[in-house]
Specification:
Elements: H1 3-14, H2 23-29, H3 32-40, H4 43-59, H5 65-73, H6 85-97, H7 99-105, H8 117-135, H9 140-148, H10 162-174
Domain HD: 48-172
Protein name: HD domain-containing protein
InterPro entries: HD_domain (IPR006674)
Length: 175
């Protein structure tokens, strides 16, 4: 992902407090229990997810309900630990500049110390999000998209859900 995209994301997160959440758009695509999960997300993640959805909707005349819900909930696992912008920035920069250090810091080991949380959340949020969706009996396809949205696409290019995953990843990367 380009540095300019990351800078835009950081600025959006910093000014998220002044941007209204289009809850009606989320309600259109999410069940009541899914919407409750969406509302647990931090404001910057909600705004990001809504932007991902808008990107998908602008791409094609039809976006499947499953893909729309995945756009809104792909980062729901981050609701487990709300972080400041500087913490997110630290984990992104570490992953890009010192991947072996990121790998070491992102391993989940019992109680998380505040300084390790951003690394673990960045690494584990897809699995946590999938678990949260399993707990509300979400559709298997939605769960799969959330669980694998951060994986390299090449890992899943032959999977039946690959076309939806490719669209989700592209929209996520654009936002």
């Amino acid at each position: 992902m380009a540095i300019t995209t990351r800078l835009k994301q950081g600025l959006r997160a910093l000014f998220a407090f002044s941007t209204p959440i289009d809850i009606e758009l989320a309600q259109h695509y999410l069940s009541r229990s899914q919407l409750a999960l969406f509302q647990q997300m931090a404001r910057p993640e909600q705004l990001h997810s809504l932007n991902v959805l808008r990107t998908l909707l602008a791409q094609e005349t039809h976006t499947s309900p499953e893909l729309a819900a995945a756009a809104l909930l792909h980062d729901v696992g981050k609701a487990r630990y709300h972080m400041a912008v500087w913490q997110k920035t630290a984990s992104v920069l570490t992953e890009k500049l010192a991947p072996s250090l990121f790998d070491q810091l992102s391993q989940e080991e019992g109680h998380l110390r505040w300084w390790r949380a951003p690394f673990v959340v960045r690494e584990q949020h897809p699995a946590w999000g999938a678990q949260m969706l399993r707990e509300i009996d979400a559709a298997p396809g939605l769960i799969w998209l959330v669980e694998h949205h951060a994986d390299p696409f090449s890992q899943w290019k032959d999977h039946p859900q690959a076309p939806l995953l490719a669209r989700l990843k592209a929209a996520d990367d654009a936002n």
